[in-house]
Specification:
single chain; alpha+beta; Pnp Oxidase, Chain A; 2 domains; 7-stranded antiparallel beta sheet; globular
C-alpha cells in the first residue's frame, strides 16, 4: 500500500537508526595499505556502471591478482575476452563512475571501491597485461574515490562458501535457457556440449 512506502530520507534513516562508529571509520578516500593487500589477494570482482540505457553489473575475474595497483589512488583492470556486449564499457563512455565489490573465496568480508574509470588502449599497457601472448582488449584506469570493507553478514546468511549446501543441479544450463528464449532456435544440447571447450579456448 502507498502508505507503507518509504519515500523520504528522514523516514529511511529513522527506519535503520544511526550508523555504527566502525562503519564510518572504515571508509577511506584512498587504498590504505591493508586494503591494497586485501585487493591483491582477490581474483574476482563485480563491476557496476551507470549509463544512458540504465544500470549494469557484471563479473570480472582473472588468475590473480585481478587488478594492478598503481598507487593509493589508482587501479588498473584489464578487460579480457567476453561476449562483446560491452554493456559496462558503453556506460563508461557517458558516465565514468564505477563501483566494485572484490571477493575472496572462503572470506566473509568483501571490499568495496568507488571511483571513476577511463578506457585505455595504450599498446604498452596492454602488453603488460598479456597472458600467453594474448593482450586484453583494453584496460580500465580507475581513479579511487572511496574504499571500505563490507561486513560478512550477507555471505554468512547465504552460506555462499558452503558448497555442500547448494543444489546446483537445479540451476538451468546456459543451453537450456537459450533454447527456451529462442523457442528452439538455438539447440540447447549442442550449445552446452560445446561450451566447456569454447570457454577454455577463449579465456584470453
Amino acid at each position: 500500500m502507498p502508505d507503507h512506502l518509504i519515500t523520504d530520507l528522514p523516514s529511511l534513516e529513522a527506519l535503520f537508526g544511526p550508523v555504527a562508529a566502525p562503519s564510518i571509520a572504515k571508509e577511506t578516500d584512498h587504498l590504505h595499505p591493508l586494503y591494497a593487500r586485501w585487493i591483491e589477494q582477490s581474483r574476482f570482482a563485480v563491476l557496476a556502471t551507470s549509463g544512458a540505457h540504465g544500470l549494469d553489473v557484471s563479473p570480472r575475474g582473472d588468475a590473480g591478482p585481478l587488478v594492478r595497483i598503481v598507487d593509493e589512488h589508482t587501479l588498473l583492470l584489464p578487460e579480457r575476452r567476453g561476449n562483446n556486449r560491452i554493456d559496462s564499457l558503453r556506460n563508461l563512455i557517458g558516465d565514468p563512475r564505477v563501483s566494485l565489490i572484490f571477493l575472496i573465496p572462503g572470506v566473509g568480508e568483501t571490499l568495496r571501491v568507488r571511483g571513476r574509470a577511463q578506457i585505455s588502449v595504450d599498446p604498452a599497457l596492454l602488453d603488460s597485461f598479456a597472458v600467453d601472448g594474448k593482450r586484453p582488449i583494453c584496460v580500465l584506469r580507475i581513479a579511487v574515490d572511496k574504499v571500505f570493507f563490507q561486513c560478512a553478514r550477507a555471505i554468512l546468511r547465504s552460506r555462499l562458501w558452503r558448497r555442500e549446501e547448494h543444489d546446483t543441479a537445479q540451476a538451468p544450463s546456459p543451453g537450456t535457457m537459450l533454447a527456451a528464449l529462442t523457442a528452439g532456435g538455438i539447440d540447447g544440447h549442442s550449445y552446452d556440449s560445446a561450451l566447456p571447450q569454447r570457454q577454455r579456448e577463449s579465456l584470453y
